[in-house]
Amino acid sequence: MNLGQFLLVLRARWLIAVVTLVVCVALAGGISLVLPKKYTATATVIVDFKAPDPVTGALLPMLPGYLATQVDIIQSHRVAVKAVKSLKLDQNPALKQQFALATEGRGNVADWVADLVSTGLTVKPSKESSVLDIAYKGADPRFAAALANAFAQAYIDTNLELRVEPARQTAVWFDERAKSLRESLEKAQSKLSEYQREKGFTAADERVDLEMARLSELSLQYSTAQAQAADAISRQRQLSEFLERGANPEALPDVLANQLLQNLKAQLVATEARLQQISSQLGVNHPEVKRLEADIATQREKLRDEIKVVSQGIGNQGKLAQKRETELRNAVSDQKAKLMKMNEGRDELAVLMREVDSAQRAYDVAMQRYTMTTLESQTNQTNVLMLTPAVEPLEPSSPKILLNMLVAAFLGTILGVGLAFVRELLDGRVRSPQGLQELTDMPLIGVLPTASRAKLKRLRWGFGRTHAAPASA
After folding, report:
1. How confident is the model over 186-210, as a mean pLDDT?
2. For position 62, what pLDDT does the model report?
3. For the segment 2-39, what is each residue's pLDDT rounded down to a tens digit?
4. Cα–Cα distance between 51 and 73 in angstroms, integer?
5. Closest to 396 (Cα-Cα) out of 41, 29, 49, 75
6. Virtual CA dihedral for 14, 18, 20, 22, nearest 10 degrees?
7. How far is 227 from 220, CA to CA, in rounded Å?
8. 7, 174, 309, 390: which could form a disulfide with 41 (CB 3.0–4.6 Å)?
9. Kind of pairing, strands 131-138 and 39-47?
10. 3-state secondary structure the chain
């Protein structure tokens, strides 16, 4: 069907289309006038992404779908129940009666009323901002405004609860964990203190340093004792060799170095010189000569005794030096063993101290997190703020009579045109030469001129009179 045929059909069936259009518009207007009026109140909230966390100071992340999540939260049953309880709708006698009739007393009144009032809620996020419009549609404008504000406030409270509840649960967990870590820390400290008391450690590094200094001193003394013992043994060996050769002990270095022996020898030499001098003058039988000879004998005896003492002293010094060397060697060995044991103890002490430090750090971290989460659980600030509270609307938002009638006119036009074409299909008339040619599939010879409606009427009347005249004759 081309445009010409379409227009011919509309021209022929225009009455059906017009009647359908009028009926649709009339029905839309009548229904719009009959429908109860609805009022829409809108509360506006803003989600501030740039507001830092009140405890940590960190900025909240702007995640994809964040506003969509907030819309779902507002439309959640939890927010609806909170809004219902804030307005005490669950205590309304009329609603309680409706609840009893609808559910026969099963379930909870607040949940039932929350589901009931949620049907009038609409949440619309802004496309290019963080503003959310919370609209509520109801028959009573004051009730609609009250519910819109109640939903907005319930959403703000719920948003705060959703931030506080995880922090509160985390704080409880960290509190329990901190108690366990504190017990571990006390055990580690008790174990360290007991070990220090048992081993006598007060400051491990100072004691080890003292013992190391003592070992150094003993090692130095031992080295000195070794040299002294070697020297004493050498002198003792030299004395033995002198005595074995039958040499005069007076030639020994120790004897030559002994000042007392040198003095005794000097006195002996002086006395012998005086004896020679006096004996040549007085004779060998003079009492003075006898006295000097007795003195010389006494001095020689004393010199021999002193030489014997020095010889014995050399032997005793060797024995003492060897004994001192042995004692110092044992002392050095004992000190080394003590140091080794102290090093082992220090290593174990270091392990215990590391355990204490590790337990202390873990406890400090847990307490820090516990303090932080406790503060977060006690915060009363949120990043959602009421931008514009809902006010009682003056004009109804529905039904919109003009809009409904325009929509009805559009739909009525389409429906009227459709009915006209349906009627045309059922009638099957040919409206144009092209339609006839398409219908018969035969070539078109000619087209008679179309007579006007008045001419057809006159022809119809004239044809009637012509056939009626002979009958009257």
Report:
1. 71
2. 56
3. 666 667 667 667 787 788 888 888 888 888 777 778 88
4. 20
5. 41
6. 180
7. 11
8. 390
9. antiparallel
10. CCHHHHHHHHHHCHHHHHHHHHHHHHHHHHHHHHCCCEEEEEEEEEECCCCECCCCCCECCCCCCHHHHHHHHHCCHHHHHHHHHHCCHHHCHHHHHHHHHHHCCCCCHHHHHHHHHHHHEEEEECCCCCEEEEEEEECCHHHHHHHHHHHHHHHHHHHHHHHHHHHHHHHHHHHHHHHHHHHHHHHHHHHHHHHHHHHCCCCHHHHHHHHHHHHHHHHHHHHHHHHHHHHHHHHHHHHHHHHHHCCCHHHCHHHHHCHHHHHHHHHHHHHHHHHHHHHHHHCCCCHHHHHHHHHHHHHHHHHHHHHHHHHHHHHHHHHHHHHHHHHHHHHHHHHHHHHHHHHHHHHHHHHHHHHHHHHHHHHHHHHHHHHHHHHHHCCCCCCEEEEECCCCCCCCCECCHHHHHHHHHHHHHHHHHHHHHHHHHHHCCCCCHHHHHHHHCCCCCCCCCCCCHHHHHHHHHHHHHHHHHHHHC
Task: State how beta strands 384-388 and 121-125 pair.
Answer: unpaired
Mean pLDDT computed over 66-80: 89
What are the tokens at 262?
Answer: 């040198």
Structure tokens at 213: 């200094």
Helices 141-199 & 66-74 angle (0-180, nearest 10): 110
Separation CA 441–CA 431 (nearest Å): 16
Contact (CB, 8 A) for 325 and 225 = yes
